[in-house]
Design a protein that fits this description.
The complex is a heterodimer. Chain A is 37% helix and 21% strand. Chain A is an alpha/beta fold. The N and C termini of chain A lie far apart (82 Å). The chains are: A alpha/beta, B alpha/beta. At the A-B interface, strand 3, helix 7, helix 8 and helix 11 of A face helix 2, strand 6 and strand 7 of B.
Chain lengths: 499, 119
């Protein structure tokens, strides 16, 4: 079954204090679909005044919400999961329209995974216990986890509903109120979600505001009325957000991208079997989600003695990718999320070629017919070169992989770790020793071993080096949204004897 | 110094002039990876904490252009031209509300440029 562009209202509003409210300045921005560059709808161009209202609403709600039982909060999180699941197709279609990713991805990955993250944190908060120590026969130390209060969250456009579903559930499960700003390129599924869950949480617990970074993002990140900011984005904005947070002595968590190596040792070609087939697909996963993934395996490292044979298979598989209308269920690679993203990727293809990288596949824009002619499509591209080239060092955020060869384990590690980033990595081998030792030596927060691009709940995800800090998609994220109350209790009837 | 590391197109200069008129003194900072990264970001001067780890690449229309030292090590063999394109790039860069995005176009430094700038 194929799909088409869904229907939208002419304009949408912010969701503050349990109500849909227009922006104070009454200004809106137009949001277009990257599939054909046509208008989706208008969204609020919020300013500091709007953020102020949300901060007031969230602060008003925080005490009562923070005192609800874990059972009550978990039940509401499960309700959200059920609502998304019951409307899975509608969410998938809106997400595809807004972001440009193929419908088979939103139907099978983005939306079902989102559902699961809500359920995971609903379970995690129920199963948790505080800790207690008897320090001596008369003295007990009790550690209770308390919510921080009001959390600001700024999320990116590459997995709009999924990033929301990584961020909101752990903050809500732990009893915080949240003000979330979706990316301005992809405001639609966050809006669809609050329309469907408007009555689920008490007013002020969940607030969604739209707008531009300098006008709405900065006032949120720097607001003295919030208690923490969580951000996914890039390094310069990350530094600015930490600066703003430092003024309020607020904690931050950030996920800031990467340039992930995907390493293939020669044993993958010991047999032409199902595992080799899986490994080849693993190399081609650079094109997944149009390469717009923080952990895109954008550096392909292949051992030299299998390089030619392995790359022939990788090129063949890459050229079999179907890039077409994202609403078609057979389409594997869709549109880049925006024009500036599209232009940036093309500029990287140029500098790559100028630096001497050899184009093994793709290497240009993809011109589709009809309505899609105005959309933003790039051919899945393989560039061959060396690790000092800029296409090996910078996150292109497109369906572009830079491939190089290595001699042995030492050289593989040297290349893999020669990067500013440390978010993800992949290691592929049939050698059991390599499968443990190589991942341990890679400086990255997530190393996929004989797999790639899996993001299940209960496997912590986060960065080393300039890729940030904090671990999402795992119950340890709950502590990033809490503070510890230590009650130190004396059961001794006798005085100290000091005074 | 005969050669420069950075340049700017006319279209980008025109956007920059509008931002200067609105905000006053500005700086460029070249961002690193992820969704909206690898792009030149423009901020009000003093907005971003800079120190000796931020390399001054040059001036564009009177505006300092910085890049972090770590990143500079990987970029220093290339010449950068700030251009502008339509788009809705998310970040705190000041041109975003105008519906445009600054973008970098790069080329290799010539051997002459390289020997002067990188020695």
């Amino acid at each position: 079954m194929d799909y088409k562009k869904p229907k939208f209202k002419e304009k949408y509003e912010n969701f503050i204090g349990g109500k849909f409210v227009p922006p104070v300045g009454n200004e809106y921005f137009e949001n277009n679909s990257p599939i054909d560059n046509t208008l989706i709808a208008k969204y609020p161009r919020s300013q500091k005044d709007d953020i102020d209202h949300a901060v007031i609403a969230a602060n008003k709600a925080k005490e009562a919400w923070g005192n609800t039982s874990a059972a009550e909060r978990a039940s509401l999180l499960n309700k959200v999961a059920d609502i998304i699941e019951a409307n899975l197709e509608e969410f998938a279609l809106v997400e595809t329209c807004d972001n440009g990713k193929p419908i088979r991805e939103t139907l099978n990955a983005d939306i079902p995974l989102s559902v699961d993250h809500w359920r995971y944190f609903a379970s995690a908060i129920r199963a948790e216990e505080s800790s207690m120590s008897e320090l001596d026969i008369h003295t007990v130390s009790l550690n209770l986890k308390e919510p921080l209060g009001v959390i600001g969250q700024i999320i990116p456009w590459n997995f709009p509903l999924l990033m929301l579903s990584w961020k909101l559930p752990p903050a809500l499960a732990t009893g915080n109120c949240v003000i979330l700003k979706p990316a301005e390129q992809t405001p639609s599924t966050a809006t669809l979600l609050v329309e469907k869950i408007a009555d689920v949480f008490p007013p002020g617990v969940v607030n969604i505001l739209h707008g531009f970074g300098p006008e709405a993002g900065k006032p949120l990140a720097s607001h003295s009325g919030i208690d923490k900011i969580a951000f996914t984005g890039e390094t310069t904005t990350g530094q600015l957000i930490m600066q703003y947070a430092s003024k309020n002595l607020n904690p931050v968590t950030m996920e800031l991208g990467g340039k992930s190596p995907n390493i293939f040792f020669n044993s993958v070609m010991d047999a032409d079997d199902a595992f080799l087939d899986k490994a080849i697909e693993g190399a081609v996963l650079f094109a997944f989600n149009q390469g717009e993934v923080c952990t895109c395996p954008s550096r392909l490292l292949v051992q030299e003695d299998i390089y030619d044979a392995f790359m022939a298979r990788v090129i063949e598989r890459t050229e079999a990718i179907i890039q077409d209308n994202p609403y078609d269920v057979n389409t594997m690679v869709g549109a880049q999320a925006s024009n500036d993203q599209y232009e940036k990727i093309l500029s990287y293809l140029e500098i790559g070629k100028e630096e001497g990288a050899k184009v093994l596949s793709g290497g240009a824009a993809s011109h589709l017919d009809g309505d899609l002619a105005n959309g933003f499509y790039i051919q899945p591209t393989i560039l061959e070169g060396h690790n000092k080239m800029r296409v090996f060092q910078e996150e292109i955020f497109g369906p572009v992989v830079a491939v190089t060869k290595f001699k042995d384990e030492a050289e593989a590690l040297e290349i893999a770790n020669d990067t500013l980033y440390g978010l993800g990595a992949g290691v592929w081998s049939r050698d059991a020793h390599q499968l443990y030792q190589i991942p341990r030596a890679i400086k990255a927060g997530r190393v996929w071993v004989n797999c790639y691009h899996a993001y299940p709940a209960h496997a912590p995800f986060g960065g080393y080096k300039k890729s940030g800090f904090g671990r999402e998609t795992h119950l340890m994220m709950m502590n990033h949204y809490r503070q510890t109350k230590n009650m130190l209790i004396s059961y001794d009837k006798n005085k100290l004897g000091f005074f | 110094m005969n050669y420069k590391r950075v340049a700017i197109t006319e279209a980008a200069t025109s956007i920059l002039d509008q931002l200067k008129a609105k905000y006053g003194d500005l700086i460029f900072h070249q961002s690193g990876g992820c969704c909206d990264g690898s792009s030149p970001m423009v901020f009000e001067e003093g907005e971003m904490y800079l120190d000796e780890s931020d390399i001054l690449l040059g001036q564009l229309n009177g505006i300092n252009y910085y890049m972090n030292q770590d990143q500079f090590d990987y970029w220093k063999h290339t010449h950068l031209t700030v251009d502008v394109t339509e788009g809705r790039g998310a970040s705190f860069s000041l041109e975003i509300p105008m519906g445009v995005r600054f973008i970098i176009r790069s080329r290799l430094l010539t051997p002459e440029e390289n020997s002067e700038l990188n020695n």
